[in-house]
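Hi everyone, sorry if this is the wrong subforum. Our group has a chain we'd like a structural model of before ordering constructs, and none of us has done structure prediction before. Sequence below.
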Amino acid sequence: MENIRIDMSGKIFLHIADRKPLDIDSIQLLEKVDIHGSIARTAREVGISYPKVWHTIDTLNKMSDKPLVIKSAGGRGGGGGTVLTEEGRKFLKRFKSIQRTHKRFIRQLEDKWASGR
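Answer:
Right subforum, don't worry. Here is the predicted structure as tokens:
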């Protein structure tokens, strides 16, 4: 096995009290909502149901002291908007920093394996 290239992987989960752990896909929904300004458009792009996207966003909102996302109801013609709050932007920034650190760690493990140490 000395000359075999090993690619390692790992996944980050956020464990919040007694709730189901949130993975990177859940966190990335925040980013998509920020881009689209809409839970419905995010759900269509990602290929999951509106209620599932909203449930994930709601779970993230409830874990924070301040909302990460604010949803506004549509007017007469419908079509309300959804925006990431400043707290939501800070949350994403912190998570991305942790993600970068995690990737460096995985690369270090791969290097360690490759060098046989």
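For your construct planning: The longest helix spans residues 86-115. Residues 51 and 73 are 15 Å apart (CA to CA).
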